[in-house]
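Problem: given the chain below (114 residues), write out its structure.
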Amino acid sequence: MEQTSSAAAQILIAIIPLLGIVMGSVVIFFYLLWRHRRRTLLINAGQYSKPIFNLKTFSLLSGLLLGSLGVSLTLLLSIVEGASYVLLGGIIPLSIGTGLLIFYFMKRCEKPNV
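Solution.
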């Protein structure tokens, strides 16, 4: 009797993450479907306006967030693990954040086209 309850518990533990992934996928699918239908109706009614996306502000914000996360992870992982492949967990976001900040400063200094 002990063996079957353990096997049942293992099956339940294995099913829970799968159900979470399936339910999350269903929610994302219906959100995208709702958004598509809403946009289509707005276009047909002539009320749709294209959303404004500011690339400079996005690159600044994400660069600052990724850079600070990368610095803290790199320092923590270098103290805990030393120089190993684990350190890539901090170096990768640090380098992406640095690249985004460089892009922001390059675009900020660029003269606008007339």
